[in-house]
Amino acid sequence: MSTSVMIPPTATPSQANPATGDIRLSFPRIVRSEWIKFRTLRSTVWTLGITVFLMVGIVTLFSAVVASQETGHDARGSSVFVFTLAADLAQLAVVVLGVLVITGEYSTGMIRSTLAAVPRRLPALWAKAVVLVAAIFVVSMVAVGLSVAVMQLFLGSKGLAPDLGDSQTVRILIGTALYLTAIALFAFAIGALLRHSAGALATVLGLLLVVPTLGVIPWRPLQLITPFLPGAAGSKILLPTQINAMSQGGVGAVLGPWQGYAVLLAWVAVLLTVAAVLLRRRNA
Amino acid sequence: MIEAHGLTRRYGAKTAVDDVTFTVQPGKVTGFLGPNGAGKSTTMRLIVGLDHPTRGTVTVNGWRYDQHRAPMQEVGTLLDAKAVHTGRSAYNHLLAMAATHGIGRTRVREVIEMTGLEPVARKRVGGFSLGMAQRLGIASALLGDPHTLILDEPANGLDPEGVLWVRNLVRFFAGQGRTVFLSSHIMSEMALTADHIIVIGRGRVLADAPVADIVGRAGATTVRVCSPQATRLGELLAGPGVRIASSTPQWLEVTGRTAQAIGEVAAAARLVLHELTPVTGSLEDAYMALTQDCVEYQSTTTGLHPDHRGADLAPASTEGATR
């Protein structure tokens, strides 16, 4: 380090004037900055890679097993329910990414650089959300596309591959990406609220995986709330109607695919609003 | 120009910055001195909006920091060398910071070159030494070619060459009519770098004056006198307000009389003088004198005085307070 060339300051600032362009803050530029931050961390590459791997892996396993069996036992629409399982697994990776995108800045101190560059603060939060949503949606759609191709390969001859002409199938396929995107944003909002990686991750996983199991306790208020939990509500969008109908007759409400998804989005909206208010108020 | 008016920041019962008013002038290097916990960093964080004032205002060139269209072009800040994501390379960090303002890759490479970061620019920041992290922080501050530089302990962790480089850099910036506000613990470095000093203690401004004034005001201008008739001269000089110390024969250390006065007394009494040297106090002496009542974590008294938060309300040493 000490051997590095130190250019004397007389040859330094402002000679090459960067102010030749229009130097100022703008939202598209902040989004660009957040995109650079997003793609230059290994954790991003890893979690997105794992998301794709988990989804395609589960679908491949399922397809291979079904293909090896004698009979195509059920209607063709039913093979698509594997995406519920795939999304359940993939959400773990997506949640980690959603949380780390924001808490990683708090744990390293980067947030102070970010907020010094964007002192109005909220544009930085929204830009992060935009980048996260775009990236997760695109990557999930790629994973879904690969999965469909795999199913076509294994199950096409049996007539069990997803039928892209069927509206429910298309809803489930796109719904898988929509669900993962919303869950990532949900994790992001909690990360922004708690500003602590481990705490936020535990909270998100608790809300998604642990709290819903409390629904088995036969206590009416609890059973009424359960369908409105973020995971349970949001995942309706990738549940085949026939399976969803099976939960009819229980205590709580049975939400339709889009109703359920809207409930998840409402969770996200409320949490993000609180996170935004706190971001403005709190010290960085 | 940075202007603070009645700036106050409380954290619960603790007042970190207490009704602070000052102006940092352009074209000068203004040093910001104070003991640990005096409120230096908090004041700097308030300037760039990382912290919100409980009361009072602070503006940079007439506007609150967040009201500027291009904050990074207005103010370059280094508040914390470790305010960087450890998993990202220095180059990508700077690229992302620059992107917020539409600052191009050319400038990113420029600041990397200026701060001597080329050999490590592609390495992840997590493995950086404090000195390298400090250089990265300075590089980031320079990205927007800012009108105002705010540097908190920029020399921290730098090698002597780096310290010299920072000094030249800030002098050059000030020479161009820009505003430079920097804090440092290294008093000798500050004496060489700064034109103007603001001393803060327990959240209050203790002094705000040119370096020479601060040093002069420490008062302790001593005159060293060497004379074969030192004893006789000592008798003649004695009087109210005059202190004379003699550690070795023929040598006197006189406080309270100017060199000129001593020379005249000696001449009138036909005494031989071998040496007559005014010794001005150092910035360090002046600083110690100003802040001795305000050191929150004083090493010599550890354990003697529990740190009473209420003591913040006691009048701090007002000696030299100009506002």
Written account of the structure:
The complex is a heterodimer of chains A (284) and B (323). Chain A is mainly α and 284 residues long. In chain A, 68% of the residues lie in helices and 0% in strands. Chain A has eleven helices and no strands. Chain B is α/β, with parallel strands linked by helices and 323 residues long. Chain B is 32% helix and 24% strand. Chain B contains eleven helices and 13 strands. A six-stranded mixed beta sheet of chain B has the order 5-6-7-3-8-9, with helices on both faces. Chain B is elongated. The C terminus of chain B is likely disordered. At the A-B interface, helix 1, helix 3 and helix 4 of A face helix 2, helix 3, helix 4, helix 5 and helix 6 of B.
H/E element string of chain A?
Answer: HHHHHHHHHHH
* Cα separation of the termini of chain B: 18 Å
Order of helices and strands of chain B: EEEHEHEHHHEHEHEEHEHEEHEH
- Which blocks of ≥5 consecutive residues of chain A have pLDDT under 50? 1-19
Low-confidence stretches of chain B: 301-323
Q: How large a portion of the residues of chain A is in β-strands, by DSSP E?
A: under 5%
Main beta-sheet strand count, sense and barrel state of chain B = 6 strands, mixed
Average pLDDT number of chain B? 86
- What's the total helix number of chain A? 11
Helical percentage of chain A: 55-70%
Provide a brief overview of the structure.
With 284 residues, chain A is mainly alpha-helical.
Helix-strand layout with pairing:
The complex is a heterodimer of chains A (284) and B (323).
Chain A: H1 27-39, H2 42-68, H3 82-108, H4 110-117, H5 122-155, H6 167-194, H7 197-210, H8 220-225, H9 230-234, H10 241-246, H11 257-281
Helix pairs in contact in A: 1-5, 2-3, 2-5, 3-4, 3-5, 3-6, 3-7, 5-6, 6-7, 6-11
Chain B: E1 2-11, E2 14-24, E3 29-33, H1 40-47, E4 55-60, H2 71-74, E5 75-78, H3 90-99, H4 105-114, H5 130-142, E6 148-152, H6 160-175, E7 179-183, H7 187-193, E8 196-201, E9 204-210, H8 211-217, E10 222-226, H9 230-237, E11 243-245, E12 251-255, H10 259-268, E13 275-279, H11 283-291
Parallel strand pairs in B: 3-7, 3-8, 5-6, 6-7
Antiparallel strand pairs in B: 1-2, 1-4, 8-9, 10-12, 10-13, 11-12
Helix pairs in contact in B: 3-4, 4-5, 8-11
